[in-house]
Amino acid sequence: MTFKYAFLTFFILSLIVKIYLSFRQSKTVKALSNSVPERFTGSINLADHQKAANYTIEKQRLARFSSVVDFALLFSFLFLDGFKLILDFVSNFSISPIFVGIFFIYVVILITNIIELPFSLYKTFILENKYGFNKMTFKLWCFDLVKSTIIGLIFMTPILYLLLFFFENLSSLWWLYSWVLIVITAVFLQFIAPTYIAPIFNKFKPIEDLELKSKLENLLSKCGFRSNGMFVMDGSTRSSHGNAYFTGFGSSKRIVFFDTLLSKLSHPEIEAVLAHELGHFKKNHVKKRLFLMLALSFFFFYILGYFHTNGIILDSFGFTTSVNNAVALTLYFTVIPVFFFILKPIFSISSRKDEFEADAFAAEKSDSNQLINALVKLYKDNASTLTPDKFYSMWYDSHPSAHERINRLENY
Questions:
Q1: Share of the chain above pLDDT 70, in %
Q2: For position 252, what pLDDT does the model report?
Q3: Which residue of 9, 25, 325, 389 has the fewest CB atoms within a 10 Å radius of its CB?
Q4: 197-224 burial, b if ≥16 CB within 10 A, otherwise e?
């Protein structure tokens, strides 16, 4: 029981921290919304600055409400016998323990998704619509939901079966085999996602602007980077937000630009954005994050094995080690990550450091002024606040603030 109350204490404290930081972010952004920061007065007008402030404040309001609902849902699962009621329901079906376990996990996921559905609808069709970002129809939203559900079932069902099989048949080493399975699955998805999964949702086509393509290929050659091609994605069918990303491993690596990004930036600015992304590869950020993911997931599964052996978590929430293995797994995957919330600032600091290094690489391989211009346009077009709260930013932000990035780029 001591673990149960320690968890509840940490659970409540984490919610308090989330709410506190969110209110700080809203308060800071609102207080600084009446004047554009001096560095941006020539490129962003007051109306756009205030739009970004209002957009940020409304997103924070939604995030706070969502956090409280998530807390209430998890509390009901753990402290109001939610998991026990679901287990009683699925146990009525005369199927093998493993399939009862899979059914249990899917019912938990279904309930969670139903609770979160209104937030997704509100964000897409009210909040994003209000600020002119949403381009998605309700029909397309429904199609995306159906497709993602089908794909999830296709991939998750065999994985869950194997996890529960390992749990039931491999004694104390089940956690190690489970970790290997998750790693293999993650790497496999990285290979097939760009070619087979992403096209289910979006259309991809090679860059048709031959002049731009030539410039980008020269940059790739100069940086010693090989990919499986550069593609334009029809992001405008869902949102006006612009972005670019790398995806895949090895020979399946590809560079993807949203069509919204290409329509907003000049050729030199696109080159600079690409140079920044290339910087992440050349500075080994991708390998570093992959290694970190492997190490953390290994540690996480080791902890699962440890707690299952001593039965502390199961006992604390009124279960025994004889309970269906799916309940034990769900309980571990629900409870343990709550304690990792305290590590969020460490990962955020590391990510911001990587962004600075990628900016430095971009300044070396392209025109830093063009990257500055691109960043300013993207902050403006995406309604990103220029005045985040320092504590909120320290805890959550994976990218440095616009002011910090541009100051460094100007020094380069």
A1: 98
A2: 64
A3: 9
A4: ebeebbeeeebeeeebeebbeebbeebe
Give yes or no for residue 357 having a pLDDT over 90: yes
Distance of CA 116 to the CA centre of its chain: 16
Pinpoint the alpha helices (H) of 193-311. 198-201, 210-223, 259-264, 267-282, 285-310
Q: Copy the structure tokens of residue 114.
A: 């139903």
Give the residue from 408, 406, 388, 383 showing the smallest Cα distance to 398.
388
Residue given tokens 């380069």 in the structure block: 412
Identity of residue 175: W
Direct distance between the N- and C-terminal alpha carbons of the chain, in angstroms, rounded to an integer: 56
Q: What domains, with CATH codes, occur in the chain? A: 203-286+347-411 (3.30.2010.10)
Q: How far apart are CA 196 and CA 222, in angstroms?
A: 30
What is the spatial order of strands in the sheet that 254-258 belongs to?
204-206, 230-233, 254-258, 244-247
pTM for the model stands at 0.90
